[in-house]
Specification:
317 residues, mainly alpha, 14 helices
Length: 317
């Protein structure tokens, strides 16, 4: 995995700088005291809710792969592949998570099928996060326009993906721009596979799973605030988490670093939370969601490599 290590390590260094910078720019002692208020049992519950998110999303991923490829991969092996993708969650748009495609190729799952699953997973996650962000849009006018615009674009894109008009436009573009013709076939295959996952029971089932998964992490964020003695409504806490993740995703910064933290902390302060507590809550949330996933991914990737299952094996099979 050497070619993937550099962006990962760079993102970790950036995150550490941001987090420690946030602590020292604020009231260090107050932040330290706030972090100490969370007991071990609290950490277990908060991290457990993040695990609920990962397990639910894996279940949806496995469903998508089986729906497209008709291949059933052993549960333990496939779950490890899925978790290994988290090692590269800090890449822009989480694109590095497509490393799962290299693991799945050996089992007969084509790149088109796994990448289509990844695309639909990200698309439904975006819909879910927009839905979770609606309360913030009502309470904070500055974010209302953003949520509305993103929501309209996403829901308008859904019928567009299904339409034959889009395929016709791609064919027309391939004629007008010969260089585009090379990738057009792959793009059409990606769209055709994606439409299978974006209709009827698969669409609605995937959306319900996404809502449950991301709500679990939102509840974890609310629990962090509760442990820190903050009386923030659970629906508002979940919505603040949602809008912060949404802006982090739209920023296309690695893992949303900086943008997610800034929005989350800013909205907490605007909601009446003390600045040092807001910083502490943001740090705990990001450790329990993003970095917890990254470290799990690194551990699983290392274990897979130790048993001879590195992502490069697909070149030999």
């Amino acid at each position: 995995m050497s070619r993937f290590q550099r962006p990962l390590f760079i993102s970790i260094i950036i995150a550490i700088a941001l987090y420690f910078g946030a602590i020292f720019m604020g009231d260090y002692q107050a932040t330290k005291d706030a972090l100490a208020k969370i007991p071990l049992s609290g950490w277990i519950i908060i991290l457990g809710l993040s695990l609920v998110n990962y397990v639910l999303r894996y279940g949806r991923w496995d469903w998508y792969i089986r729906e497209l490829s008709q291949v059933k991969i052993p549960l333990k092996r496939h779950f490890c592949y899925y978790l290994a993708g988290f090692a590269l969650s800090t890449t822009p748009g989480k694109a590095g998570e497509t490393i799962r495609s290299l693991y799945l190729k050996k089992h007969g799952v084509s790149y088109n099928q796994s990448i289509s699953s990844f695309f639909v997973e990200r698309f439904l996650d975006l819909i879910t996060i927009v839905l979770l962000s609606t309360l913030v849009a009502f309470q904070f006018d500055d974010y209302a326009v953003l949520v509305i615009i993103v929501g309209l674009v996403i829901f308008a894109a859904l019928p567009l993906i299904h339409s034959s008009w889009l395929i016709d436009r791609l064919n027309w573009l391939a004629v007008k721009v010969p260089k585009f013709a090379i990738g057009k076939g792959h793009l059409v295959k990606l769209l055709n596979s994606s439409t299978v996952l974006l209709k009827n029971r698969v669409l609605y089932g995937g959306l319900v799973i996404g809502i449950l998964a991301w709500t679990a992490e939102g509840v974890g964020f609310w629990l962090v605030l509760e442990y820190l003695g903050q009386d923030v409504d659970i629906a508002l806490a979940i919505s603040i988490y949602g809008i912060a993740v949404l802006i982090g995703a739209l920023s296309f910064l690695p893992g949303g670093l900086g943008s997610t933290e800034a929005v989350m902390g800013g909205l907490l302060i605007a909601s009446g939370v003390d600045s040092s507590v807001a910083i502490a809550a943001t740090l705990v949330c990001r450790i329990a969601t993003l970095w917890f996933a990254v470290f799990i991914g690194l551990g699983v990737s290392g274990w897979l490599a130790s048993i001879g299952l590195s992502p490069e094996f697909s070149k030999k099979n």
